[in-house]
DNA sequence: CCATAAAAAATAATCTTTCTCTCTTAATAT
DNA sequence: ATATTAAGAGAGAAAGATTATTTTTTATGG
């Protein structure tokens, strides 16, 4: 928790239990949760925390670059404490979202820059398919 | 309009003025409009059309593969009658969404398949930046 | 034409996200 | 330690996007 406190302070943010809890949770999961999911996981430890606080905190963390926002095409956003741009794969069977090895795409941005007159500053790469468990289910 | 009628009939869909108008509009624009935008453009010609009809029609067209749904990270979905998977670039200045030359990515899906145990069936590639007009604005 | 099933219209409801207002608290300087 | 103050948290309302429900209208095959 010390490091997380430091991260917040570095950015001039007040260190509050809610911020610590939300950032800590995101830094120790790889499930790319939604605001709703984060709220449900934390509300038992922080009974007074409201969903609005989760949203507001996520916005603050996003704006200071401590987390990134994903949208894989559902109704709601997901959040990720791994802030380097990296590709994701979504299971169309169970809805889970996982990281993909990013080494595959190292010169993709360069290619794009060559082929467009936009000033390119970011990217979001999403792949869709079926995870091993869901493939097995389909074969039964 | 003949071809559009045929497309709907091929899929066993009733040919209604609303469906013709919505699909025709999407097939002749490259602006990747939202449901709201489509509604606003068409309501003058179809004064009784409701936004709910636009949503329902878009869902039908999507489910039959006549259009695809995009989510570039705004609050709402955009729709595209070009149904082949192709990359998009979003202007962070003016919000416009354009197609990118897809030839750059021809073996991307193959690369992904090599590096994951998912059964990969689709992809969404979004790039973010500033269009030439917005770059010019920023320099003034 | 007519019957019938499907679609459109109208409207309400739901779901996610944002806003506003008030109260509390963390950070800082004394 | 205490006081000050500016930022954040909480509650609830509100907004915005999408979906569901009910009734009316329309497309289409016979
Ligand atoms: Mn990730
Ligand atoms: Mn497109
Ligand atoms: Zn799965
Ligand atoms: Zn622009």
From TrEMBL, chains A, B:
Keywords: DNA-binding, Metal-binding, Repressor, Transcription, Transcription regulation, Zinc. The keyword ATP-binding does not apply. Gene3D superfamilies: 3.30.1490.190, Winged helix-like DNA-binding domain superfamily/Winged helix DNA-binding domain. GO terms for biological process: negative regulation of DNA-templated transcription; regulation of secondary metabolite biosynthetic process. It comes from Caldanaerobacter subterraneus. CDD domains: Fur_like. Zn(2+) binds at residues 91, 94, 131, 134. Pfam families: FUR (PF01475). It comes from the Bacteria. Its cofactor is Zn(2+). Belongs to the Fur family. Binds 1 zinc ion per subunit. InterPro entries: FUR, Fur_C, WH-like_DNA-bd_sf, WH_DNA-bd_sf. This is Fur family peroxide stress response transcriptional regulator. One of its GO terms (molecular function) is DNA-binding transcription factor activity.
